[in-house]
Amino acid sequence: MGLLTGKTALVTGAARGIGKAIALKFAAEGANVAFTDLVIDENGQATEAEIAAFGVKAKGYASNAADFAQTEEVVKQVKEDFGSIDILVNNAGITKDGLMLRMTEAQWDAVIAVNLKSAFNFIHACTPIMMRQKGGSIINMASVVGVHGNAGQCNYSASKAGMIALAKSIAQEMGAKGIRANAIAPGFIETAMTAALSDDVRAEWCKKIPLRRGGTPEDVANVALFLASDLSSYVSGQVIQIDGGMNM
Ligand code: NAI
């Protein structure tokens, strides 16, 4: 028996990166896993196959998480295909960095839509299902910059602070229905999102991290597993920083 045997998880933006690591971790613990991404190309198909290799049901759905109508449609489809949705991970996210005075309206709008509105869309569509099932676990992917802010990332930081407040509000609104909501705040994690950073920037970051390394997607997935499973049955409305001790 795995920690998630018999549960269905829906992870957004999981064709690669942290979302993929979470999907695989959940599958390894027995969950059936539905995931979304903008497109399900050979990358997404490979992810689907890797999840299925754990002997669970797996399916990737092409959908833009920022789009309300597409989200309603995809959640309806997942419910039809899988029968239930017990765990929702709002992971899809992008960066469009720039200093405030140089930031365009388009940069602001895109990041808020993909990083924050997407979570509203999925929570709105999934919680009626979770309420009927009398329980569920929602995990919002925030970031340490959503707690502490970051120069050059006002759009991204604001979206991630919003993810934290959204999780806390849902924890309060829906706790009586057995629904828990928490946020994860990763620090510097080695993925495509951070691969673009120069060696100098990377070295600067590492100096500030007591554990002296960047995190791995699996470091994040382990905490997501804790929050998704009954190991955290009395944990709700919390933010867990996964940052090697960078922020205390
Ligand atoms: P990534 O760029 O490797 O993966 C993000 C995934 O989301 C991609 O597969 C992408 O296609 C998908 N996606 C983008 N826009 C989408 C949309 N509109 N609809 C559906 N899917 C969409 O990024 P990574 O590093 O795996 O990040 C995952 C989450 O973790 C993001 O929310 C990110 O902000 C957050 N995070 C990452 C950190 C890091 O250091 N890598 C640190 C803190 C938070």
TrEMBL record:
Its EC number is 1.1.1.100. Gene3D superfamilies: NAD(P)-binding Rossmann-like Domain. Homotetramer. One of its GO terms (molecular function) is 3-oxoacyl-[acyl-carrier-protein] reductase (NADPH) activity. It catalyses: a (3R)-hydroxyacyl-[ACP] + NADP(+) = a 3-oxoacyl-[ACP] + NADPH + H(+). Belongs to the short-chain dehydrogenases/reductases (SDR) family. The active site is at Y156. NCBIfam families: 3oxo_ACP_reduc, PRK07231.1, PRK12826.1-2. GO terms for biological process: fatty acid biosynthetic process. It comes from Paraprevotella clara YIT 11840. Pfam families: adh_short_C2. NADP(+) binds at G13, A14, A15, R16, N91, Y156, S157, A158, S159, K160, I189. Keywords: Fatty acid biosynthesis, Fatty acid metabolism, Lipid biosynthesis, Lipid metabolism, NADP, Oxidoreductase. Residues 7-187 form the Ketoreductase domain. This is 3-oxoacyl-[acyl-carrier-protein] reductase. It comes from the Bacteria. Catalyzes the NADPH-dependent reduction of beta-ketoacyl-ACP substrates to beta-hydroxyacyl-ACP products, the first reductive step in the elongation cycle of fatty acid biosynthesis. Pathway: Lipid metabolism; fatty acid biosynthesis. Transmembrane segments: none annotated.
